[in-house]
């Protein structure tokens, strides 16, 4: 009893029912939901609980679990979160799987992370990172993180490991202006390939992966001998400033997958965005616009193009359980049988205009998102003609404060090459 009194507990239970006019749900019902809904799900239930124990005034231990059930998926009952986390003034250490923090009010198409948008279930692993940025001076601070994950799903290469690290410089220009300059790096490595057998997984291989040692980009066997792995990264510049009318965030995230990308030979690929939170929130509380371009891919570079999220060795690509891990407008077809010459990623070349807005009317919170997308296939297999789609989503949220919260949502997908798909749903959540 004494022990339970020193732990702060919180949790919730939620259920959702949804329908669509086609066999699959509208795009924004399932996208970036951390696996909550399958593409054809009509019901989902989620239970989550967290507990935090204060070790001292400056340190704590937290544990959490979130389990969901949804129909029309291969594994209907799964975990979303299952983790234990230690925090003090300078360190946050997480073991297990935990949903990423939601950014920009949930309006961003990538959650301001081109490589890990929340489009799939959280990966299981270990992450060490700064709890608060390390302050160097009144102007400069450093944020950092390093992690190791394991891909335990069914994929072309079994038992793939994922290395992760990030480093960011935060510049507090003055009271109203600050800048974040960040680089992050993921690498798939090790595992057992049906084509090449057991891939290098020793300390030397990890050192090569850590420093992104380059192999012969046009020679697959050379890549394996050098234990290069499949490298993905991004540069992020995020400038935040305050004005009399509200707060702005202007950002560009630039992806890279090889040396040409790190030299910005694939410019202007990436996400170009602006997020605005007005001082007066009577009309709306947040508005966002993002332009996403993946059409360059360093294709004119002699070393070859980036071919986002695909790889000749790790042929399941940058995916988990058949879902893209990062920017969700890259198309994947999990029904494609992956072989030494095929890939489930059918389109990684395209352009997106994405708009989001949210606000409140009395006690009802509302959100609207719309995305205009041109899918162009890939440089190897271009779409002719292009597939142009329009995705829309709207939701209304009302919290009774006593009897739980209700969310009513609807969405549509339309385009010349598909039948217009309309869907709707109702969700209920009780928190304790």
Would you mind describing this structure in some detail?
With 432 residues, this protein is mainly beta. The protein has a single domain (99-431), classed as Porin (Beta Barrel). Helices cover 6% and strands 53% of the residues. It is built from 5 helices and 25 strands. The strands form 4 sheets. The protein has an 18-stranded antiparallel beta barrel. Strands 11-12 form a two-stranded antiparallel ribbon. Strand 11 (192-193) and strand 12 form a beta hairpin. The protein is globular. It starts with a helix and ends with a strand. Residues 215-219 have low confidence and may be disordered.
CATH architecture: Beta Barrel
Helix content: under 10%
Q: CATH topology, what is it called? A: Porin
Low-pLDDT runs: 215-219
Q: Classify the oligomer.
A: single chain
What is the residue-averaged pLDDT?
93
State the helix count.
Answer: 5
Distance between the termini: 19 Å
The profile of the biggest β sheet is: 18 strands, antiparallel, barrel
Computed Rg: 22 Å
Strand tally: 25
């Amino acid at each position: 009893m004494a022990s339970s009194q020193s732990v702060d507990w919180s949790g919730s239970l939620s259920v959702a029912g949804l329908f669509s006019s086609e066999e699959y749900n509208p795009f924004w019902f399932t996208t970036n939901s951390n696996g909550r809904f399958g593409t054809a799900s009509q019901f989902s239930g989620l239970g989550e609980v967290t507990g935090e124990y204060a070790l001292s005034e400056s340190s704590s231990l937290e544990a959490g679990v979130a389990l969901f059930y949804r129909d029309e998926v291969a594994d209907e009952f799964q975990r979303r979160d299952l983790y234990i986390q230690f925090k003090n003034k300078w360190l946050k250490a997480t073991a297990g799987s935990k949903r990423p923090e939601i950014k920009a009010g949930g309006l961003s198409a990538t959650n301001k992370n081109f490589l890990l948008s929340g489009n799939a279930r959280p990966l299981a692993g270990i992450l060490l990172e700064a709890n608060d940025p390390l302050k160097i001076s009144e102007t400069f601070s450093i944020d950092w993180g390093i992690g190791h994950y394991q891909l335990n799903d069914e994929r072309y290469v079994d038992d793939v490991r994922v290395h992760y690290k990030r480093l960011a410089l935060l510049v507090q220009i003055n009271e109203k202006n600050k800048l974040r300059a960040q680089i992050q790096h993921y690498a798939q490595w090790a595992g057992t390939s049906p084509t090449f057998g057991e891939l290098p997984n020793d300390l030397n291989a990890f050192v090569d992966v850590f420093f992104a040692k380059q192999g012969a980009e046009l020679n697959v066997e050379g890549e394996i001998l050098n234990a290069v792995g499949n490298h993905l990264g991004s540069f992020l510049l995020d400038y935040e400033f305050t004005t009399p009318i509200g707060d702005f965030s202007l950002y560009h995230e630039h992806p890279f997958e090889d040396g040409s990308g790190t030299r910005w030979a694939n410019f202007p690929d990436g996400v170009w965005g602006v997020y605005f939170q007005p001082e007066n929130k009577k009309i709306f509380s947040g508005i966002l616009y993002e332009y996403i371009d993946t059409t360059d891919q360093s294709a004119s570079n002699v070393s070859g193009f980036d071919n986002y999220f695909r790889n000749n060795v790790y042929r399941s690509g940058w995916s988990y359980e058949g879902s893209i891990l990062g920017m969700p407008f890259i198309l994947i077809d999990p029904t494609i049988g992956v072989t030494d010459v095929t890939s489930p990623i059918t389109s990684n070349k395209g352009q997106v205009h994405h708009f989001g807005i949210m606000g409140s009317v009395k006690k009802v919170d509302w959100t609207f998102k719309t995305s205009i997308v041109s899918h162009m296939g890939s440089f190897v297999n271009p779409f002719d003609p292009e597939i142009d789609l329009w995705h829309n989503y709207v939701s209304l949220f009302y919290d009774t404060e006593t009897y739980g919260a209700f969310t009513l949502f609807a969405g549509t997908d339309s385009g010349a090459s598909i039948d217009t798909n309309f869907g709707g749903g109702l969700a209920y959540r009780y928190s304790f």
